[in-house]
Amino acid sequence: MDVPNVTYRPKKIRWVAYPVAGAVVVLFTVLSFGLHGSAGFSNSGSFQRGDQAAMIGLGILIGLGVLTFLRPRVVANAEGIKVRNVVGGYDLPWSVVRKVRFDRNSPWAQLELHDEEQISIHALQAADKDYAVEGVRELRRLHAAAVDA
Question: Are both 16 and 32 inside the same structural domain?
Answer without folding.
Answer: yes
